[in-house]
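CDP-diacylglycerol--glycerol-3-phosphate 3-phosphatidyltransferase: structure tokens wanted.
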Amino acid sequence: MIKCWGEIEMTVANCLTLIRILLLPFFLFFFFYDFSNHYLIAAIIFTLSALTDLFDGYIARKFDQITSLGKILDPLADKLTFIIVFTALAIDGFIPFILIVFILVRELVVLCGSMYMYYRSKDIISPSNTGKGATFLLYITAVSYIWDLSFLQPAAFIAIGLALLSGVRYCIEGYNKYFVGHNIKK
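Answer:
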């Protein structure tokens, strides 16, 4: 673990999360810049991004690299990835517009709520298995549309259901923890 910029802890897991964020502009460039195989290159970049998400969590848990920065950066990277990738898919007509509306609203509500709770109490709500399952299936959904794997596209419906459940869970747990429990710093 390397300390840099004061108290920020840069671990291998945090570096992988940063790589995931840094891959987003490259995904967008190759997704929208029209040349031979541009969707294929964008799909490869997105797949690499998904793998960094898988490995950063595994490394953080396996090698005790869970940090305050990682608890903020990893969900932020997830939100940015889904908002950007699914918006790109909707713009180019790969996915139905209603899917992107749902994903955008859900991701923005959870992101804004998490930011507010962290700002007020320096605490976050831990991801649930439902949320992790939704994240995994959202990656599968995006990959299925980018790689044109139609047999996987029904995963979108399960992902939406799990994302909705986890979003409701975040709202309820956040309300109970930060408003009912009066844990908010004044």
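The beta strands are 2-4, 8-10. Residues 155-180 form the longest helix (26 residues).

Cheers.
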